Amino acid sequence: MRVRACLAAVIVLLASLVTPANAELFNPRQDWLRASTAGLFLHWGMFTAPRHTDCAAWEHDVTAGGWTPDYWIDEATKLGASYVVLTTFHSRLGYARPWPSKIPGSCSTQRDFLGELIAAGKAKGVRVMLYMTDDPQWHNETGHESLDSAAYSAYQGHPVDLTTRPGFGEFSYDLFDEVMDRYSDLAGFWIDNDNEYWEQHGLYEHIREKRPSWLLSNNNEDTPIMDTVSNEQKTGMTPSYDYPQAIYTPMPRLTEADYKLPTNGDWWYSGGDQAVDVRLSTGRYITNAGSSIKSLMAETAMLNGKFPPQQEAFNNFMASWTQPIKESLRGTEGGGYLYGGLQPGFWNDGAHGVITVKPGARTQYVHVVTRPSTNLVRLRDNGYRVTKVSDVRTGKPMKFAQSGGYLSILDIKDWDTYDTVFEVDTAGQQYFYDKSTIKATASASAPGHPAANLVDGSYLNYWDAGGQQPVSVTLDLGRKRSTAYLAVHERESSPTAARESFGRAEDSARIKDYRVYASDDGKNWGTPVRTGALPSTRGVQFVDVGEVHARYLKLEVLNTWSGPQAKPFFHQLALDEIDVAYGYPDPRGEVPLEAESPRNGFEGQASPVWCEACSGTSAVTGLDRGAVTFRGVQASGPSRLQLDTTDPGSLEVSVNGAAPITVSAPAAIAVPLNAGANTIKVSGNVGLDRIAVAPLPPESYTPKTTLTVEPAGVQWVSPGQQSLKITASLRLDVDDPIDQVSLAPVVPAGWTLQGAPVTASHLALGQVLSGSWTVTAPAAQDVTIPVTASFTTLGRAKSVSKPVQVKQRPADRVFMREAEDSANDIGDAGVTSCSPCSGGQKVRNIGGSAGAAVTFPAVTVASAGQYALYLDFTVNGDRSYFVSVNGGAPVEVKVSGVGNSAPYTTSVPVTLNAGANTIRIGNDRAGAPDLDRISVG
């Protein structure tokens, strides 16, 4: 769908990490989209299968096939879509215009398909937006010329080359004007990236002046004058349906997720009846709603406008499936953010879901998209006192319990396959201090974003740490007061995990390791009252501090989750708000398997004590001189036993009278429970809050980790004995501890390994294990060296691995290195997959600014002299590199190619010094080709 990036705009956006300061966040023209849940994205044009190259023939066949606008409007309504984006003037669909245009230059129909669609939509309350492309590069795809420069030049009275970006910009500018003149009921333009001509000639300002009520949306770029930023086809999240994990545009900016409903194939119909993944598609729909993101769903209309059978079937399914839960999706916002609400994300026993809220958040909806392995859902209540819970689909009241900051919905029996929805009625939030009584300061702040913004109650302002880490925020409560927990609202200006999007490295700029201190005078802080790590997840996060009585609190952020590979996110931190709570909502009901339950047996000195932060407002202490026995613990067989404690410590656990085992707590362990009733006895040196029993996860389950290995990229070596230094680190990314951890390379036979495996008995959330080794080969050879981390989880052996590839350099080359090699500095460019490239990757988004260049250090040759520098690249059209050696004047290297997927090679003479040299490849003024690797001969 998207075929190029406007590099300069992307770089500016990523550098700021925030919504552009001049963007209009609220305007009446946006109201209809804010009220929307979804839209229908229609890619349909002259190249829809069967492909046409004659405009009149295509129009004839469309009409003869029975095309009608009401069909699209009715199908959109089934999806709960309140708008349609018609995508016909598209670079891969022949640049066809579905209206009778007076401007020559590309296919234009005599029948007014666009006008008919607008009228049909207006009659049924569905708005229509028109897609416009910025990009002429596919004008001659497969040998057919889609753009008529001669005709447009004659129309304008001066030469215009439509195959160039400036010429295409001039042509399409006229089309914007024509559409604005013809269609007053159009809702706006959906624009696939910016064109330089448009920007230079004030197109967007012109649209604002001429059609002030129309919406403007831009794809993958947050342009201030646009109302909406759309985010295209994000993948690689866990769970895969949780689209918001990849979004980094903070609310209340209008955001959209545009993605394909067919599992495979193009954005447009190219033949066949592609399947729709119902689980993935419904999950995206719900999680987007839970983050106030609009789902723009792409379906592939055939020539006659009809959708293939499997897409029609999905639309019919959605019409019936969403009907019972419509109240939770219409007139709601995403919960756990600035609109209030319970905490979304990962819950107990494998559960995952989101929250939607009615205005004021007194009424909320818990959407359980992935059900837990048990019959209860437990999530943080964010200070809301819950008064009633009911199943939205069945209307049945639900049993629930609330204490210690958690809501537990109990005895759930009616699970929906894709989204079990509970209405949660509340009496509002309890026990938060009035922010007007709190002052906030910080050890560092970016200009214009002071710490005072953390307690101003506005999500339009935020605190930015200015790239400093560690960094701390101090909260002055005005006088000595009690604190139970902090509710930290991190700015949603980064994705939740390391990923690559259109060649841009992205990562999570959220808090990882932290410490909390308390002080009476703001000077003497003593030891931390709480240390830990926050998960890299969206929505409000909580730091429970126990019972602290002090005037001053200091939250020290030691680091964030982002790695250095994602430069725009590395060392960045921004927080919207911090709430200080002096208590938890009033307790109600009982959660199963509380330690203090009267159904348990207590031995020796073991007895319940008050514990406001505990799940039942009590814990059992004295376990070093006694024990608590849980009787009648139901299970279906071997299970996962979770032990929640008041502090870190150790426990001894005995199951059904067997010999006790010692565990570090809090913990989750595998236990051999019997089917039916069981007895679990616990003693130890720490207070016990509760236990929880759930089926063991599938054998395939492996806790999510990040394994980083250097060097990255194929290592090209010369003949003879070779040594290579390898470094690696393993980070645990989820709150599911792993044990018996070992990390080391596995070398081939005949190789030697210097350095022992690095080990750790235990890794918890955010903790890292790192090591360094030297591997030596008897002679240069092509091998793959896996760097493997092995560990256990719930007693099961697991491993993750990442390879270091070593290959012999060709005999006619004296140096060779991949562009994506970790030794290089790729600046603002990014690494992306490229199956035909030498290492399976390449660097893209080169050029357009001085920062978007690839610098190769340590390009080493034996003697000074002139060499040939070979560049392996991919490109579509005509572009240029500028090559600079050792800081010298850049030399232009012009290249051409087709498709941007087939690697080409060119060369340029360079003069190198003996030893190490530095080569910089970029283009400060315009986009450069993608770069696969360089070599010297």
Q: How many strands in all?
A: 55
Major beta sheet, strand line-up = 1-2-3-4-5-6-7-8
Please work out how many helical segments DSSP would assign: 11
Indicate the proportion of strand residues.
35-45%
Structural class label: mainly beta
**What global shape is seen?**
globular
Major sheet description:
8 strands, parallel, barrel
Q: Which percent range fits the helix content?
A: 10-25%
Average predicted local confidence, pLDDT = 94
Keywords:
937 residues; 11 helices; eight-stranded parallel barrel; disordered N terminus; mainly beta; 40% strand; seven-stranded antiparallel beta sheet
Report what the structure shows:
With 937 residues, the chain is mostly beta strands. It contains eleven helices and 55 strands. The strands form 13 sheets. Strands 1-2-3-4-5-6-7-8 form an eight-stranded parallel β-barrel. Strands 18, 19, 20, 23, 24, 25 and 26 form a seven-stranded antiparallel sheet that branches. Strands 9, 10, 11, 12, 14 and 17 form a six-stranded antiparallel sheet that branches. A hairpin with a 5-residue loop joins strand 32 and strand 33. Helix 4 crosses helix 5 and helix 4 (69-78) crosses helix 11 (309-321). The two termini are 39 Å apart. The model is unreliable at 1-19 (pLDDT under 50).
Task: Describe the secondary-structure layout.
Layout: H1 7-16, H2 31-34, E1 38-43, H3 55-64, H4 69-78, E2 81-87, H5 113-123, E3 127-133, H6 149-156, H7 165-182, E4 188-192, H8 196-200, H9 203-210, E5 215-219, E6 228-232, E7 254-260, H10 278-289, E8 293-299, H11 309-321, E9 333-334, E10 345-346, E11 352-357, E12 363-370, E13 377-380, E14 384-391, E15 400-403, E16 406-409, E17 420-429, E18 439-442, E19 463-464, E20 471-490, E21 499-501, E22 504-506, E23 513-519, E24 530-533, E25 541-557, E26 574-581, E27 601-604, E28 607-610, E29 618-621, E30 626-636, E31 639-645, E32 649-655, E33 661-665, E34 667-671, E35 675-684, E36 688-695, E37 705-710, E38 715-717, E39 722-732, E40 738-745, E41 752-754, E42 758-763, E43 768-777, E44 783-793, E45 796-808, E46 815-818, E47 830-833, E48 841-844, E49 854-861, E50 865-874, E51 877-885, E52 891-897, E53 904-912, E54 915-922, E55 930-936
Parallel strand pairs: 1-2, 1-8, 2-3, 3-4, 4-5, 5-6, 6-7, 7-8, 38-45
Antiparallel strand pairs: 9-11, 10-11, 11-12, 12-17, 13-16, 14-17, 15-16, 18-20, 19-26, 20-25, 20-26, 21-22, 23-24, 23-25, 27-30, 28-29, 30-35, 31-34, 31-36, 32-33, 32-35, 37-39, 39-43, 40-42, 40-44, 41-43, 44-45, 46-55, 47-48, 49-54, 50-53, 50-55, 51-52, 51-54
Helix pairs in contact: 4-5, 4-11
